[in-house]
Amino acid sequence: MDHRILQTTRELIDEVGYPALTVDRVAARAGVGKAAIYRRYASKAEMAFVATVHEQRLPLPAGTGSLHGDLLALIRAFHVRMATPAARQLAPALIGELAGNPELGTRFQDTFLAAERAAFAEIIEQAVARGELAGAVDPATAHLLLLGSLASALYILNLPVDDAMVADLATAAAAGVTALADRHRGVPGGAAEPR
Length: 195
Known about the structure:
Arc Repressor Mutant, subunit A; Tetracycline Repressor, domain 2; 2 domains; single chain; 0% strand; mainly alpha
């Protein structure tokens, strides 16, 4: 049933666009009740986000042997999902819903963003274990440096993001994470040193 709901959502977004998408339309075409959809997703925006960006499992940290390589593999995988026409339609609507619905915002933080940050935590842990980083860095900061920049480029600045830009974002994020690890080295709890 989950697959049917999400596949139908993708089809309808392609056919009629996100603004014309409704839970009623998805339920009717998928042959499920609206209650079944609302048990899974708190809103139309969440359902569409899962269908277009976050349905598949998150890419596992690539284990390329370098921080830069792992961040590059991760951002390339996310770029494929985040740059689709459906995702570009959906992101502004989802951002608006998150701003006006604290419950949905909490759910989004506790599910999707927590899973993304866990991937960053693993990449950072591997880089520390290899001796590539001087110490741990907050995964939320690494997430912001890499995927926050990608989201801003795609959804706010409407830039034509190509693989060269994706590679540049990975390079900048790797340099930022390395600089933060160096700055926090030797400070209990990883807090920033006073300026």
